[in-house]
Amino acid sequence: MALMITDECINCDVCEPACPNTAIYQGEEIYEINPDLCTECVGHYDKPQCQQVCPIDCIPRDPDKVESKEQLMEKYHKITASN
């Protein structure tokens, strides 16, 4: 399941550099997450780094982007193979 950033985001800039897949970017009003690049840090860390550093806890799982740990690991391998 990819993560998402809710409109409670205060644009504090700490989540973007914490993402190992560069899935987080500045949107028109708040930071956003590209679900094609979000692996919830599977393959990199035990926990999603953006959630760990977010001071207001506005990065939940996206219920519209449900993926298993296996699917997230497969995505991780595809992303890192192109690097």
TrEMBL record:
<dbReference type="InterPro" id="IPR047927">
    <property type="entry name" value="YfhL-like"/>
</dbReference>
<keyword id="KW-0249">Electron transport</keyword>
<dbReference type="InterPro" id="IPR017896">
    <property type="entry name" value="4Fe4S_Fe-S-bd"/>
</dbReference>
<keyword id="KW-0813">Transport</keyword>
<dbReference type="GO" id="GO:0046872">
    <property type="term" value="F:metal ion binding"/>
</dbReference>
<dbReference type="GO" id="GO:0051539">
    <property type="term" value="F:4 iron, 4 sulfur cluster binding"/>
</dbReference>
<keyword id="KW-0004">4Fe-4S</keyword>
<keyword id="KW-0408">Iron</keyword>
<keyword id="KW-0411">Iron-sulfur</keyword>
<protein>
    <submittedName>
        <fullName>4Fe-4S ferredoxin iron-sulfur binding domain protein</fullName>
    </submittedName>
</protein>
<keyword id="KW-0677">Repeat</keyword>
<feature type="domain" description="4Fe-4S ferredoxin-type">
    <location>
        <begin position="1"/>
        <end position="29"/>
    </location>
</feature>
<feature type="domain" description="4Fe-4S ferredoxin-type">
    <location>
        <begin position="31"/>
        <end position="64"/>
    </location>
</feature>
<keyword id="KW-0479">Metal-binding</keyword>
<dbReference type="InterPro" id="IPR050157">
    <property type="entry name" value="PSI_iron-sulfur_center"/>
</dbReference>
<dbReference type="Pfam" id="PF12838">
    <property type="entry name" value="Fer4_7"/>
</dbReference>
<dbReference type="InterPro" id="IPR017900">
    <property type="entry name" value="4Fe4S_Fe_S_CS"/>
</dbReference>
